[in-house]
Write a structure and sequence with these properties.
The chain is mainly α and 101 residues long. Helices cover 33% and strands 8% of the residues. The chain contains 4 helices and 2 strands; from the N terminus they run H-H-H-E-H-E. A two-stranded parallel sheet has the order 1-2. Helix 4 links the parallel strand 1 and strand 2. The chain starts with 17 loop residues before the first helix and ends in a 14-residue tail after the last strand. The relative contact order is 0.20.
Amino acid sequence: CSRMASPCESLFYSSELSAFETPLVNSSRKPQTESELLEYYEVDKCVQFVKESNFNKVALQFPDELLVDSTHLSHILEQKTGARMYILADTSYGRSNLITQ
């Protein structure tokens, strides 16, 4: 962190205010049908990534506004990949709060 501007930013740290400054996901764009759900979450790309990586356990994290889709999507992904899906229950306030690595 010494080479970075203060406060240090990393994958696991952000300023306290950043969560409140991050806009929530646009709920008007949420999927309504099964085909929209598959397209919105790019399920085919996810399935390909899980299979190519030989993952057998995957943690799924959603912005709070999209948690409503999480269980249905996890079942779809389990069926298509054979991997076990786990839904993270911690709060995230927008896309910038999602753990990406």
